[in-house]
Specification:
The protein is an alpha+beta fold. The chain has helices at residues 54-70, 87-96, 108-115, 142-149; strands spanning 11-12, 25-27, 33-35, 43-49, 75-81, 103-105, 122-126, 132-137, 176-187, 190-199, 211-221, 227-229, 234-239, 247-253, 265-273, 279-282, 286-289. The protein starts with 10 loop residues before the first strand and ends in a 9-residue tail after the last strand. A six-stranded mixed sheet has the order 1-8-7-4-5-6, with helices on one face. Strands 11, 12, 13, 15, 16 and 17 form a six-stranded antiparallel sheet that branches. It has a three-stranded antiparallel sheet with strand order 9-10-14, with no helix packed on it. The radius of gyration is 25 Å and the shape is elongated.
């Protein structure tokens, strides 16, 4: 396990004379597979890190800036995590530290096997043919990296591969991305309503506790056509235990739905609660029309 962290200022340990070709294929934090060979034709900064490595955090802002400023000229930036906890450990760290580049989910042994990595952070610069032209251990200055990549930048580079696309929720973006329902579902032999909730909690300390409060309000139209309550709101809670997930499911058996007249619908909304059970955000509303009143299709 990579436990020894060396903090030095851009110690050059390889030269162009002893560079070698490198490739890997690892699961991407954003889904799918991250293949280094897909980035051939572009100059790549490959950063090996771990969530427990304090200096690794310091590298993120400069790597984000380099990518923003020089992506159009052929620069790609990739992260390679060696966390033993895999995606569950990496995704919260990436979200909290605003990592804006794709991340491969690997291991310490794999990093050592493919690139001889023994200390963190280790940053490689890879030329458009897949050869390592520089390798740095420890925190490396932005100007140092820029000087290495500049000879490989140009005005007409090949495009970024599709695997370079990432989604990171920005501070001004909602956490609830989508909520939808499916009526007449069968789960564990029971018929009911399945509600799917897409919510981003990657940067929240869910290990301390976080919940989604599910609200079901039976309502019917009044004479003006507006929905009015016709019964008490039924509430239930979903415990969020894994910050790496963004899809959660709630199944409500027909027998557990709130009582409601035949002409009523269910208005539903969710509230995200933090570890102090304080409301963080409320989802959009969905209307479930005549739940559990259709016969099962044959």
């Amino acid at each position: 396990m990579l436990k020894r962290i060396i903090i030095i200022s851009a110690a050059l340990i390889l030269s162009a004379a002893n560079a070698w070709a490198l490739d890997f294929s690892r699961p991407s934090l954003d889904g799918g597979t991250l293949n280094l060979s897909d980035f051939r034709g572009r100059v790549v900064i490959l950063d090996f890190f771990a969530s427990w490595c304090r200096p690794c955090k310091d590298s993120v802002p400069k790597l984000n800036r380099l990518l923003q400023n020089y992506e159009a000229y052929g620069l790609s930036v990739l992260g390679y995590s060696v966390d033993e906890g895999g995606r569950n450990a990496v995704k919260p760290w990436v979200a909290v530290n605003k990592v804006n580049f794709p991340v491969a989910v690997g291991s310490a042994q794999e990093a050592k096997d493919i690139a001889g990595v023994s200390n963190l952070p280790t940053t490689l610069v890879i030329d458009p043919q897949g050869n390592i032209i520089r390798s740095f251990e420890g925190v490396t200055g932005e100007d140092t990296l820029l000087a290495v990549i500049k000879p490989y930048l140009n005005n007409n580079p090949p495009p970024q591969p599709s695997s370079a696309k990432v989604y990171r929720r920005q501070d001004n973006e909602r956490r609830f991305r989508q909520v939808w329902s499916a009526d007449n579902e069968v789960y564990q032999g029971k018929r009911g309503v399945m509600i799917t909730i897409q919510v981003d909690v990657a940067d929240m300390p869910v290990a301390q506790g976080a919940w989604v409060q599910l609200n079901l309000s039976p309502e019917a139209q009044d004479s003006s056509g507006r929905l009015r309550s016709v019964g008490p709101v039924k509430q239930s809670y979903i415990l969020l235990t894994d910050a790496a997930l963004d899809l959660y499911y709630a199944f409500i058996p027909c027998a557990d739905l709130p009582p409601m007249p035949d002409n009523a619908v269910l208005r539903s909304w969710m509230v995200l609660l933090d570890h102090n059970q304080k409301a963080v955000e409320t989802s959009q509303e969905i209307i479930i029309s005549r739940p559990c009143r259709r016969p099962l299709s044959r």
